[in-house]
Specification:
By secondary structure, this protein is mainly alpha-helical. The protein has 3 helices and 2 strands; from the N terminus they run αααββ.
């Protein structure tokens, strides 16, 4: 015996059984749509996590580079502070200061001190 498929079978069912089956079919369809939405959201979150991890790696590399630069510049900053704020007997000779700039290949703008311009760049 072969059972008829499709709407012909549903038409033969009692109305209350048919209503239950239609409600279950609707609920299943809603669950499928919700699952697809959650899967898409999950994929988007995974992409965001990967992007964030890449940005974090770039920032960590930049942070390390900045720390190295700071370590490199701290002696120069100490010497500049000494030249500016130390008593005159402890001040650096301008040639020593120029040598410090040349060693680090830093171009310094002219510095005004006591009304005159001291050039730290080569003459």
């Amino acid at each position: 015996m072969t059972l008829p498929k499709g709407p012909a079978l549903l038409d033969r069912l009692p109305p209350e059984v048919r209503a239950v089956l239609e409600a279950q079919a609707f609920a299943l369809s809603a669950e499928r749509a919700h699952r697809q939405h959650l899967e898409a959201e999950h994929a988007a979150l995974q992409a965001d996590a990967a992007r964030t991890a890449a940005e974090r790696a770039v920032m960590a590399a930049e942070n390390a580079r900045m720390k190295e630069l700071l370590e490199e510049l701290e002696p120069l900053i100490r010497q500049l502070r000494l030249a500016r704020y130390a008593p005159s007997s402890e001040k650096l000779d301008p040639d020593q200061l120029q040598l410090c700039f040349e060693e680090r290949a830093i171009a310094a703008p002219p510095v005004r001190a006591r009304g005159r311009v001291n050039r730290l760049s080569p003459r």
